[in-house]
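Hey all, quick one. A colleague (J.T.) asked me to put the adenosine-5'-triphosphate job into the tracker so the inputs and the structure tokens live in one place instead of scattered across chat threads. No bug as far as I know, just bookkeeping. Sequence used:
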Amino acid sequence: MTTSTTTPVAHTDPDVHDRLTLDVRAVAKSYGRGTASRHILADVTFAVHQGEFVTVVGPSGAGKTTLLRCLAGLLSPDTGEVVLEGANVTAPPKGLALVFQDYSRSLLPWMSVVGNVMLPLRRSGMKRTERQRIAEQALLAVGLAHATNLYPWQMSGGMQQRAAIARAVACRPEVLLMDEPFASVDAQTRADLEDLMLRLREELGMTVVLVTHDIDEAVYLADRVIVLSGAPTSVTEIIPVPLPGPRNQLRTKLEPAFAELRAHVLGLIRR
Ligand SMILES: Nc1ncnc2c1ncn2[C@@H]1O[C@H](COP(=O)(O)OP(=O)(O)OP(=O)(O)O)[C@@H](O)[C@H]1O
């Protein structure tokens, strides 16, 4: 895999994000019943604006995946609500796509890459030729134009995760939710995929909410970082990231402001 030299632009101008896309209001969630009940999310409230890249960090077990599942309509909050584009999320909404950490389980091994990317487009009612054209475009956007006919098991982990990203963005989602998407790839591939996400966000105008354990990644990618407390979880702080764009893996991470933000986030998580 080649080193990415893309120079993604990050939105640092707050005026860009004046339209509310996702509104998370006092979400609470427990697992289990009675004495076995465990209160995971206590009161999580934040808003995400159109085109924003928001990252979510917090201690292990804080309920980051649980929160993402509530945002995706895969879990119902016990109390509170998730509102996407003004509508209450009660089931997986149209206009929202998910990318998980485990790319090996998210692609169907008996289908070619282009077949995998075309799969969710079936619901659109488009003709096969149109679905194929859109899937090939998405694969081109993630740097897999040469791999459309390969099967997932013929590709590296990074390529499989690119394919999963292509499948998610082929539907042109308003909001892309990503749960630790780069945790299983090597450091260089991870940096390439981070830059790919910044570029796609720019090109497609998507709103992105990305959960990560990696504080460098959280600060590098974000317009704002949402720091969660330990369970029972609430939002500890929402931190704007006023680092200039275009972000660059070497230059951005050498900026004193990057180091300060990184230390601040780490301090909040360790508190
Ligand atoms: N379906 C479930 N049933 C019962 N408990 C669950 C379920 N899913 C998660 N949990 C528990 O809820 C807590 C939060 O889990 P979750 O995966 O949401 O946290 P996380 O912040 O994403 O964790 P990590 O940082 O380790 O990835 C954990 O203690 C987990 O064991």
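Adding what we noticed when we looked at it: The chain is about 35% helix and 25% strand. Residues 31, 40, 58, 60-66 surround adenosine-5'-triphosphate (CB under 6 Å).
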